[in-house]
Amino acid sequence: MELPLTLSWTTLRPTQRVGLVLGPLAAAAVYLLPSALHRIGDHGALPAAAAAVTLWMAIWWFTEAVPMGVTSLLPLALFPALGVFQGAAPGSRVTGAIEPYFSAYVFLFFGGMTIGAAMERWNLHRRIALHVLRAIGTHPPRLLAGMLVATAGISMWISNTATAVMMVPIGMALLTELEPDADPRAPSRFGAAVMLAIAYAANVGGMGTKIGTPANSIFAGWVSTNLGREIGFLEFLLIGLPFMLVLLPLIWWRLWRLGRHDAPRGGRGREVLEQQLRELGPMSPSEKIVATVFAGAALLWIVSDLIRPAVSPTLASLLQLERVGASHYEAAVAMAAAVILLLLRRVTFSTYRTFPWTAILLLGGSFAMAEGITASGLSDWLIVQLAGLAAMPTVAQIGLAALGTIVLSGIASNTATATLMLNVLPRSLPVLGVATLASSCDFALPAGTPPNAIVFGSGRVRLPTMMKTGLLIDLLAGLLLTVYGVFWLSWLLG
Q: HEC string of the chain?
């Protein structure tokens, strides 16, 4: 598990030191000092308690004062201690804080990441990417498009960080072949465009599926809990995939404008692709098994609306549930795929040593935060405070949500950004859907997302180039999301 248990004050950055102290101090002030949060209906000090914990988590998430997974565990300790989940049922203080960490969406993400880990272990993701690149072509504009398509396609199913780590060596090998005489001290604009294509597509690809990034699962879980609306795998495809398909050509256009001036002639990169495919060799039996399990799970998710009614009674009996929702069915498919891969030893228990546990804890912590905001009565206060925003025209709400979330995602992870925006924006599905997609739209800063940092570390991209290119794409993404939300999501989600 990638969660350091010790912190050294001397190794912390100044912002981390400030955040480490400011988080609990701000929380104590909100909880102890009399305010309107202590006078919301019959809730007493509970809204102030939930607000205090939320503020503490937000400060620690934004400043990265402690590992993000550790911050995500704060509700486990603080919500029971502060009585946020006071209820009629005995022990509800504790169970209310624990249950969100075992949400069906957590199991869906866990199973999906297990499938992704199997693809990585047996190089299936690499084979798919190389075949996509070869099919699209290696002439410079086609190569740039192929890099975007291959990276985004893989990132729909495995983490954006793992996708970037896999694609960067492929991109570097292609550039070495295409630019044999390039000076490494003076990166070419075309080389920067190719590497930025990897970073940007890794971020955008996660928007396409329910398991593509934790923010998507948080959105679906939040909507299910707070609005009583189940968003199935196929419906989320209709939410995220069209935007991904519209945004990628815009990114290609901007990156080709950057790289066309010194783009090499010809398609010599095909030799690199052929060589790497030869090194992979024919598909192994393990690859074929993983591909079959992956395809089967994806198919069962996509046709869930047809199958779920038939299997719901059995699932309800096995899981001891009164009602089986889309999340339970999808989680069952994901966990079944994970168990099959384990039984067939295509993943092993040692695989989970390097598993993205931080992302899974972030999911649980995000759901716990949202549950605490609702159970404490804080959500009632937030609705009143946001009445002015909710009264604005839909286009204004969506535009502010899109641009505000993109700005916030530049200084915080998309998971933390999505969690906070879902809890403070008006409870309008198009607005919340736009904010969720916008949380994956930071393209300007190396620290914005892990793929940005990985690509920046390749030495092929200068900071001014990333910022100038990324800021324009940020703006285009915000404007496009506004139009997309007003017309498509408003029609799709109502």
A: CCCCCCCCHHHCCHHHHHHHHHHHHHHHHHHHCCCHHHCCCCCCCHHHHHHHHHHHHHHHHHHCCCCHHHHCCHHHHHHHHHCCCCCCCCCHHHHHHHHHHHCHHHHHHHHHHHHHHHHHHCCHHHHHHHHHHHHHCCCHHHHHHHHHHHHHHHHCCCCHHHHHHHHHHHHHHHHHHHCCCCCCCCCCHHHHHHHHHHHHHHHHHHHHCCCCCHHHHHHHHHHHHHHCCCCCHHHHHHHHHHHHHHHHHHHHHHHHHHHHHHCCCCCCHHHHHHHHHHHHCCCCHHHHHHHHHHHHHHHHHHCHHHHHHHHHHHHHHHHCCCCCCHHHHHHHHHHHHHHHHHHCCCCCHHHHHHCCHHHHHHHHHHHHHHHHHHHHCHHHHHHHHCHHHHCCCHHHHHHHHHHHHHHHHCCCCHHHHHHHHHHHCCCCHHHHHHHHHHCCCCCCCCCCCHHHHHHHCCCCCCHHHHHHHHHHHHHHHHHHHHHHHHHHHHHHHC
Q: Which residues in 45-74 are b (16+ Cβ under 10 Å) and which e?
A: bbbbbbbbbbbbbbbbbbbbbbbbbbbbbb
pLDDT tens sequence across 293-341: 999 988 988 888 788 888 878 777 777 777 777 788 888 898 999 999 9
Amino acid at residue number 229 = R
pTM of the model: 0.81
User: Which distant-in-sequence residues (6+ apart) come within 8 Å of 357 by Cβ?
Assistant: 1, 2, 3, 69
Rounded CA-CA distance 277/171 in Å is 14
User: What's the Cα-to-Cα distance from 43 to each of 9, 52, 80, 372, 420, rounded to whole Å?
Assistant: 38, 15, 15, 12, 22
- The structure tokens listed for 308 are 């779920």
What does the pLDDT look like over 158-171, one tens digit per residue?
A: 888 888 888 888 88
pLDDT tens, position by position, 402-460: 998 998 887 677 888 888 888 888 889 999 999 999 999 888 877 667 888 888 887 88
Domain residue ranges of the chain, discontinuous segments joined by +: 11-100+360-376, 105-212+229-354
